[in-house]
Fold each of these.
Amino acid sequence: MPRFERKRRIFKNKDALGESYQPDSIEERDEEIDAYMDALQPIVDGWEPNNIFIYGNTGVGKTAVTEYLLDVLQDDVEAYDDVSLSVISVNCKTLNSSYQVAVELVNTLRPTGAEISSTGYPQQTVFKKLYEELEAVGGTILIVLDEVDSIGEKDELLYELPRARSNGYLDEAKVGLIGISNDFKFREQLDPRVKDTLCERELQFPPYDATELKNILESRAEVAVVDEGCESGVVSLCAAVAARDSGSARQALDLLRLAGELAETRDADTITEAEVDDARSKLEQERVEEGMRELTAHGRLALLTVISKAAKDETPCRASDIYQEYTRLCESSGMDTLAQRSVHNHLSDLRMLGILSAEENRSGSRGNYYSYELDVPFTSAIDAMDDVLRLDREIETIREIAVMNNVG
Ligand code: ADP
Ligand code: MG
């Protein structure tokens, strides 16, 4: 008997739930697609392309819609002999400056073996090499810079490239930039001259609501999961969870995939809501752990303090109460205490990471203050703390208190 045996009881195409899958159809984005097509129209008409800037949280379909529409566009312009369209896509996630992005673009355009080194040239030299390559391609060239916010403050390329034609560097090539960003702050922080050109056309992708996510998930499940592989309610639950949290289709898809994997390990034939619940806790815990790895020891302790308050069923609670609990924890674990102000800063950081949520209270004479509580399930939070903090005794006590109070 073979030791490995194919299962495939739940999934008929699990890859369809993965990162690299490109869906055949896009659901629920008709308005965005219309606006996007409108921004791309000059290309079809044979004019210089617009520069387009697309922003929205992660998982809202920016990359998927872009890939889908540019494929359609490339097919459709073949009808016009006087339009020759090339699309160059680069994900900037690991490229942290204009220089690195420009090198990457040059090397994408050059044949294997003729790549340039990623260090050692003056920046203008790399830009010139890029213009040469673009001229050699000629025609209309769309350059897609996905996750362009990674480029950070060294954004000269975003200024130079749209001006290359009017500055005389390009003649044969008509270049359009499509910048995609998960980070709205990036747009705000752009140099006004860059903003003017790059954001010539702007498209915002809002988060999906539960109904939209349900439709997206349903049509994906048809491709990915065997018939009868999902109990009724499973897709809606995944959609509802993701809608409440992030409005991200990626989150909803990840949830469904992990739920399917759990059903598989349990040798089941269908995914039930129980697997979705378990998948959700697991993903949430991963998120908390990821966030926690970024924290300093004191940041972790600040979080443990809120967890301890939650165990006593005393959250939401204000920063001053958290501070009292914090000094108590520090004493019992033999750590130095930070000033209240620093602990406050740690609480804000935890809020940014989505681990805590805060509510502003108005209290007349004494001004406004914030009340904090966990924004992740109690169990995920304390389990994650177990792995990163060496405070076994304190954590054990908190668990016992939580059980007494029926928390978690
Ligand atoms: P973003 O680039 O905004 O972070 P993606 O485009 O990568 O998000 O979308 C995340 C996942 O959700 C991908 O697997 C994508 O195929 C899927 N997806 C997002 N929006 C839609 C949609 N409207 N229709 C079908 N699939 C979608
Ligand atoms: Mg993307």
Amino acid sequence: MSPAIGTTLDRVDGRAKVSGTARYTAELVLPGLVHAVLVGARVASGRIVAIDTGAAQRADGLIAVLTHLNLPKIPGTPKLLPSLAGMAAPGQSYFPMQDDVVHYAGQPVAIVVADTVERAEHAASLLRVDYEETPAKTTLDQVRDQAYEPERIFGGMLPGRVVRGDVEAGLGQATDRVDVTYRFAANHQNPIEPSASTVVWDDAHRLTVYDSTQGPTATQLTVATLLGISPTQIKVVSEFVGGSFGSKAMIWPHVTLAALAARQVERPVRLSLSREQMFHSCGHREEQEQHVTLGVDAGGRLTALRHHKLSITSYFDDWAETSLQSPGILYRTPNYEGIYRIAKGNTITPTFMRGPGEATGIFALECAVDELAERIGVDPIELRLRNFADTDPTSGHPWSSNGIRECFQRGADLFGWAGRDPNPGSRREGRTLIGWGVAASAYPHVAPPNPQRARARLYSDGSAVVEAGVSEFGTGVTTAMTQVAADGLGLPVERVRFVGGGSDLPNITAAVGSAGTGAVSAAVHLAATQLRDQLVGRAVADEQSPLHGADPGAVSVEDGRMRLRDRPDVGETYAEMLSRQFTPDVETLGVWTPPPPDPGYGLHTFGAQFAEVAVDADLGLIRVRRMVGVFAPGRVLNRKTAHSQLMGGMLWGLSHALLEASWMDARLGRWANPSFGDYLIPVNSDVPDVVVDTIEVTDTVVNPLGVKGVGEIGIVGSGAAIANAVHHATGRRVRHLPITVEDLL
Ligand code: MOS
């Protein structure tokens, strides 16, 4: 029996998904279910002065209209904490509908409940809310003069400033420098499935929340905190989630509002956000700019790196996506300064969006490095190879694993980088300008701060169930964990069922920051191997077993059969043993304690990105013709799902570079393009030939299987490779995203 890990096993939930039997939160049919619709504030700043509910109250099917005047206040205090901490994770430290103040457009001001969703929407449209409007600030330009340097960002988990050496001195030693500012439009995650919560109160004290969430436990703890009840009173179910990309990592107010509404109307309530509401209710990647200064000596070695970020946040939270982590460790430079500055505006608190932070941070850095390479006349790959940090610059520790040089080497071969004419505009095909670009990719490896658990149970028929409270939001975790459990137990994958999707299952951190697969696989691997050891222990202790008295270390399990490693004919199956022992099942809990915050190694994932673009010289149209990405994400559990994650990430980077933008209407203080009609994302015809490859690096530090994760790394650097290719094609350096036709005309 060959190992299941590393194979291309098809998604075990694929059939359920394509046949429609996989049920999502908004599809649940429950007896007595009624429908709630959120009404968001029309203005971005001000006060509610009057709410006329008369017409809505008279609408057909109306059950309740809830506003700050009649909704019970929440007893709990929201506290911003990244869901990774495995704790309550409100999306912001402000909870709406407690008073008449409006802080941002779309802030919930009323909940309308009716017997059908259509009737609830109609009644909601009849509601009249009058505001006393005050001037709102919603763009970076409107608030930049009030920017300040926060002591800590990211729910207090990271410092607002990191300094090593003396940047001014380092720049003084430089023979050349670049000093550039890159600007980024705000972005929204736009998962296919909008967020939805279905809430059932079993009685006045216990409720079940079906929620579209990246972390069932995070939902459980957040709703418990806000309602002022015990987590024991809340069960969260979240089996299938239709994409998230960070929008469902924090637990936003609508979930708790649905619970409050359900308690108020004493019926099960479904609350689904509309596509437009998704733009106002679940955070976003904030509008930002980044200033990068690089100094280099005559040998092409970096003498200094200064990286400042300025972004807009809400009035409640010092949130900035963490753009400076990977850029701060990629290169060896004695003098480094990374500083976040933020300014408060009338927006919801920004949040994670796929490749959170590093996608913009590496974009700015890797475009600046490309500018520097051109300036000093050194090949951009060569310049990087001269400067990559071979130890972690923040701590001086060795990397737990790295692989970036190998990624560049293989990527350059696959792409055919050799022989590139460095001169911009040097390659033409008729009216089309061809350009090649390259960029490094990096993403921090995040170890969850608390133990991770999974349960494994083997039945007397020789099949196993393995459980952990993670939700499947399209990453393939169910499939990969089936493989991990099968190998740990010595079973074929067909005999293993992985069950996730609920807070009643062993607690696993929310799947965020590319940390999900590492954390879950660690717990699942421990549970499965512990259970195997227990079963082998039972066999060698059992006088009726052919393995009686054997050294457990000399026993291996293949295809569900325990046997002596050097005498495979001596042995018996799990099923034979348990039947004889009148034992219906054997179960164990695997508890994995992640490495401490400073494990003595730098933990980071690396890769290399290449792109070829074709630009229409007359029309400015950019087509990406080829992309190559090579990554070193540690152990790859399933080659097919991992490569599809990486490919999806690379295309997300394409989208980030050329298409995506949430435009703020500064006059109205709200997003101007909150729909799939107006928020551009790539379609199949925008997507080029994409080559994805992985370098398998061995990592014995991060977790038992050496898994570093593939969720974000594909995005990071792919936008920069494209922007650098656009410059190579045209000679134009566009220093903002997205790069559009207008920029090249
Ligand atoms: Mo992921 S964008 O870290 O939820």
